[in-house]
Amino acid sequence: MTIDELKFDKDGLIPAIIFDEKSGNVLTLAYMNRESLEISIEKKLTCFWSRSRQELWLKGETSGNYQHIRSITADCDGDALLIKVDKDGPACHLGTDSCFTNEILKIDESSEKFSVDGLYNLLLERKEKLPEGSYTSYLFEKGIDKILKKIGEECTEVVIAAKGGDRRETVYEVADLMYHVMVVMVEMGISPDEIREELASRHVIDHKVKQEKMV
Fold it and tell me: Which end of the chain is least crowded, N or C, by CB within 10 Å?
């Protein structure tokens, strides 16, 4: 589909849903006109039309929180866009990761799909509020030495379970290890995105090495 095939509304605008490619979170809903969409495609950065200011708005131009476009997809009617991005910082002007933070309804919380980012955000909340009776609060209160001791213990448990050939027990111990690793990440201010970026850089290096070996 081309820009000419898109259906802009009577004001010459089309809604754009901005989606974080790494975390899978919806970041914001904004609007584009033809010019801002063309700029977005040219610069590979999101550029919107501000309905309140009646002007073009290149996201990140003043804040530094640029959104690097990875893909732009139109819906079946061609009257809405889904834009996947790799962001440099918070998407919301309030400083939050996403503009969608005001929860209205949440059904059957226990059955929600697990995510690394969801767990990380929960650990961040535990560190900030330190609710009584929480094991996570206990770890943060004890500090880095206690957290690292638990990581060492869980590493040993993983080795023992795997060496014994107990697949179910190994899964259980790996989960424990991952949880404690994420606790130390929160303690040290390391985000999941930083880990993803590091792994991605290694993937690129490994791919280049393989290509060189084939030459």
Answer: C
Q: Report the half-sphere exposure of 166 (CA within 13 A, side-chain side).
A: 12
Q: Could you report the per-residue pLDDT of 74-119, keeping only the tens digit for each? A: 999 999 999 999 999 888 888 888 898 888 877 665 556 778 998 9
Q: Strand (E) positions, 75-168? A: 81-87
Please give the structure tokens belonging to residue 110. 């226990």
Q: CATH number of the domain at 3-87, please?
A: 3.10.20.810
CATH 3.50.50.60 fits 110-214, yes or no: no
Say which residues have a Cβ less than 8 Å from residue 98's Cβ, sequence separation at least 6: 20, 25, 26, 27, 28, 91, 92
| Bridge partners, 142 (sequence order) | none
Element (H, E) at 71: strand 67-74
- Which pTM does this prediction carry? 0.53
